[in-house]
Amino acid sequence: MRPTHTASSARAPILILLIAAGLVAAAAYLHPVSVGVIAAAAAATAASVAFAVPLAVALARLTFEGRAMIFALLVIASATSPVLLDHAAATSALGRHIGLGVPIATWVVYLAARALPANLEAAAALDGRSALRIWAPLLAPSVMGAAALVFLYCVFDLR
Amino acid sequence: MSSRPDNLRAWALCAPAVFALLGLNVVPAVRALIEAPPRPLMAELSSWAIASFAVMAQTLLFCVPTLLFEIPIALLLAVALLQRRAALPAERSDRLTAIAAVLAAFAWRLVFGGAIGSAPSDAPDWTMAALEVWRTLPLATLLLFAALRRRGTPLAEVATLDGAASAQTLRRVHLPLCRSAIAALTALHVVDYLRALHAPLISPGSADRAIWTVLVMVVAILGFRVADRPASV
Predict the structure, then answer these.
(1) Which of B20, B203, B220 sits opposite A98 (nearest CB)?
(2) Which end of chain B has the smaller Cβ count within 10 Å, N or C?
(3) What is the SS3 assignment for B37?
(4) Domains, chain B, with CATH or none
(5) What sign does the CA torsion over A110, A112, A118, A120 have?
(6) All domains in chain A, ordered by first residue
C-alpha cells in the first residue's frame, strides 16, 4: 500500500515556496513591481493565512455548537468580498485584500483538511501526539498553495 | 455531542477570522444595502424587472456553455493528474500536487491580472464563454483533483477489477465524487458572471444592485451548501 505521508513530503512546502518565488521573480522582471507592493502583498497574505487556517481546521475537523452559523457567515463573506462587490471605498487596500484573501485561503485549506482521514486525531491521541502535530505537516502544502494564490492576487492587484 | 471545552477551543480558533470577515466583508455590505435608497416606483419597477431579467438570461447563456465546456475538460485533466500521481512514488507525487497547485494559482492570476485572455469588444458570445473556460480551467482542474484525491484511485481500481470500462468509471465513480466541487464551480461562475454583467453589484444609490447582492448571496449559499455534502458513489 502506498504511504500517505513520508518525511520527504515535508519538502513540499519549501518546493512550493521556491516555485512561487521563481514565478513572482519572472513576473516582476516582465512587469516591474516595487518593494512596497511586495511588502504590502506579503502583509495581506500573512494576515489572511493567519486568520484562515484556524477557521478552516475548526470547520473541517471539529464538531462544535455554532458550526453551521460560522459556515453560513463564511459563505456570506465569500459572496460579499470587497473586491467582488466593489463596496471597498471606505476600506483600506490591506482590508480589501484581507477581505478577499481570508475566504479564498479558508476554502482551500478547508477542502484539504476535510480530505484527511476521519480517525486521524484518535490515532494521534493513541500515539500520545497532539492533533496539531499531525495536522501541521499534512496541511502545510495546501496552506502554502493558498498563500501563493492570495499573494499573487495581491501583487497583481497592487501593481 | 461536543463538550464545553471543545466548544471553547473551536470558537477560540474561529474568533479572529469571524471578526475579520464580519468587519471587512459582511458589515460594509449590509451598510451599503441599508444606505441604498428605497425601491423605485412602479413605472421604474417594470423597466428594472426587464433589465434584471435580461441580465439573468445573459448570465445563464454564458454559464451553461462555460460549464459544458469546462467540466469535461477539467475532469479529464484531473483524472489524468490523479493517475499520474498514483503511478509515482509518494514523495514525487507530493511534488506533483504542489507544482500543479502553484501553476494553477499563477495561471489563474496571470490571465485575470493582465491583458492576456481578454476578448475584443465585438467578439461573439461563444468566444467569451470559451475565454472564460481558458481563464478558469486551471482552478477547475485543481478543484476536481482535490475532490478526487481522497477516494478516487481506490474506487477506480475496484471498478476496473469489476470489469468497468474507463468511460463507465469516469461517469459512475469520478463524476459523483466531483459533485461538490462542480457545485462550488457553478456557484463561482454564476457569481462571477453576475459581477461582470451587472458590476458593481453594490453601490449606494441603486436599489436594484442591492437586490442583486441578495440574489448573489442566495446563489452562493445554495452552491456551497451543496458543496458541503459528502459525496456518495
Answers:
(1) B20
(2) N
(3) coil
(4) 36-227 (1.10.3720)
(5) negative
(6) 35-158 (1.10.3720.10)
